[in-house]
Specification:
The protein is mainly alpha-helical. It has 2 domains: 47 residues; 34 residues. The chain is built from 3 helices and 2 strands, in the order ααββα. A hairpin with a 2-residue loop joins β1 and β2. The radius of gyration is 29 Å and the shape is elongated. It starts with 9 loop residues before the first helix and ends in a 10-residue tail after the last helix.
Length: 105
């Protein structure tokens, strides 16, 4: 028979609280997993992946590189989109006093 919480000691109440928290977390995780599986199945029925529908990266598709905004005046095959690390030729030009505007495409 379950002991009434009114008659439990603090230690017993704390232990009971931990058990209840663990049970709630387990229940929520199970329900979340079930809901995700149901949503994925519905998306698949319509010919999509869940990632495609929610705006995530579609499975198996490559991401497009950024469009080049800057080109090396000395070698136009060297370009940079303006995102990520600056290439050495950009760093050198900036150190020499040039502005990014002079290298804009």
């Amino acid at each position: 028979m379950v002991k009434s919480i009114d008659n439990m000691s603090l230690t017993e109440l704390q232990a009971y609280h931990k058990e209840v928290e663990a049970a709630i977390k387990g229940y929520e995780k199970k329900k979340r997993t079930e809901a995700l599986a149901a949503v994925r199945a519905t998306a698949k029925e319509h010919g999509f992946t869940l990632e495609e529908l929610i705006g995530g990266k579609a499975a198996g598709k490559a991401t497009a590189k950024g469009v080049a905004k800057y080109a090396n005046p000395a070698d136009s095959s060297q370009t940079w989109s303006g995102r990520g690390r600056q290439p050495a030729w950009i760093k050198e030009a900036l150190a020499a006093g040039k502005s990014l505007d002079t290298m804009a495409i």
